[in-house]
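Reviewer 2 asked us to include a model.

Predict the structure of this chain.
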Amino acid sequence: MTLTDELEECLKDSPRFRASLEVVDMGVGDLETKLDKLVKLCGGMIEAGKAYNVANKLFLGSIKELASHCHKDQLLVDTLKHFSEGLEELVGYHLILYDQAQRCIRTNLQTFIKEDMKGFKESRRSFERAADELEMTVVRHAQVPRTRPHEAEEACNLYLAARKSYRHAALEHLIQTHDLQSKNKLVVLDSVCSYLRAQFTFFHQGYDWLNDLEPEMKQLAVKLDEFRQVASQERKEMEARHVSVEMQDPCWREATIELRPDISQGVVLEGYLFKRASNAFKTWNRRWFSIQSKQLVYQKKYKEPVTVVVEDLRLCSVKPVEETERRFCFEVTSPPAKTCVLQADSEKLRELWVRAVQTSINFAYNDTEDRQEEQAETSPRQQPSSEDTNLQVNQLGMGASSDTLQQNPGVTTHLAVISQPPKCSALRRIQAVRGNQYCCDCGREDARWASINLGVSLCIECSGIHRSLGVHLSKVRSLTLDTWEPELIKLMCELGNSEINKIYESNIESSTLKKPVPESSCKERETWIRAKYVERRFLCPRPRGAKPGVYRKEGSNVDEAGVQQDDEQAETEPGVKHRQKTAVSEHKNGKEEGRSEAELKEGSEDCVEWDAGLALHGAARCGDLRALALAIAHGGDVNYVHRTAEGTTPLIQAVIGNSLAVCEFLLQNGAKVNHRDDHGRSPLHHATYLGHTGLRLARMYEEMRESEGPYAQEGDETYHDIFRDFSHLASNEPDRLNRRSFDDTPP
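Predicted model (structure tokens):
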């Protein structure tokens, strides 16, 4: 029906017009119902979106907390932080989308329902009132009789007014109906289009952010693949360790792992031990024990405070216990008569704990003495005069009697100053040598272990590998826990990492094997150390051009010129003149015999193959430790017998040369102390005859320690002090211990 037809029908007030109005009313009612439902659902969607944003913010906050927990992994922290910030931007985009939905759909439709549909309903009610009034007026107009013209005229006027009012109401309602129908279309389409534009903007912004993030996501995917491969490889390695665990002795493995001294933190050894209670039942409880800060302590659980067993290790003693029913027991005794019986898991662990306690006791004493000496050095003290010094030295050299010492108490005090220089820990003295503060093999700083037969300092990782080589190749000792004799410290200071590496790494350029660094793995370290010391892959070829028996010291020649130099030096020291002349004459004879024999064997050849044994022999006589190390590295036999030199060995030659450090070096590398020359004289015989007291003292002290056994306690302090004082004197001032007059005729 067209608009003209509708107007005609409206003016006629035909049934078709009334029917069309009913159809329109039904459509408007249905539209209102659906719009109300849409508005309610839109509101529910917006509320759900806001709840989603709240949950999303909580989720992103949890991601940030996870990033703060993983602060040690910078990659993980940066990635989580960057992604969470981007996701927070997406949450903001969601809020914009919900605001657009609120304004585009909910607000617009609610306005349409409350205003436009309300006007339509009011026009409908006005139309119905006008129609009802017209109907009543028509009825009254029809009922007026002919006999009442005045009533008829009045009824006619009312009828005309009612019809006019009805037509205006009908036209107004028709206009409202058309406005509602046209505006309904506009409002609905505009709301939907606005919402779609909001959705488009939301997804476009999200796409732009994700597009910018795509390169980082690709890089992260590559790193994740690498991490998966590394994790898979580590998983395989961990699974492969099950086999190695079954092959190794668990006690040895535990001892190797736990015994890692760290003096800076005071921890020497820690592990589980059984402790026998002091109650009447004598129950055994397993506790976590540790030696730290000069104390023996234990605790039951990690968070519980530690219980001190021994307050001061200097006041305790330790020894194995064999009288108990349980195996692997040892006891720690401290005053006043307090005994603590402990049980290890194996014999090896018991030995380890006993040795650790004994070493800690020694360290506690040495540390106390070092502090006292530092305080003494900072305070002024009176130095002895030169006359007193000469008197005291003469008394010591000629054997001062006890009466003399009692009459002159000052002699004892001054003797301590002379015979025993201010103590300095082995760590400080050895690391003071250039290169010794770093590990000889990997270069790690603060090396606290050493190989005493090689003369190098090591880190704890490399020391473990050296220990696995066996004592015939490397004897490992701690610079902080073990006791160091003066001659051994002097040996370490005269050799050192720099000199030894010049020998064992002299041909390193020809090898493709890379030297390990502090960050290298244990496998890389072991490969390098075995190639260096076992296979000796980096040694230069044996030198040629030197005749056997003629030793050439680096930078000078030990020949007749060297002998003349020794003679001149001997003239400046009358006290040792005869001894040095005798040694020099013997050295000359030995060299001449060596040359004669070599010339007889080689004929007129000018150059012959360098002999490591002869080099050892000559270097020992001259006291050149570096030449000794070079000869040993090239396979020289430390027990080489020089038949043309009265069957002497390098050790005998070192004794004749009065070099305590050389003797120590040869003994550490397996020299036999009981070998005799052609005249039946051993090295100790030569030392005793020549008056080299320090060499004899070193052997006596070694015999005493061997006789005490592996668990021996410290004996008489005076007894040990005597050995220590004489050892210092023999190492630093050997001429003062020469007890033999060289005017005597040798046997």
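The chain has five domains: 3-244, 253-375, 382-419, 426-534, 560-737. The chain is about 65% helix and 5% strand. We have added this to the supplementary material.
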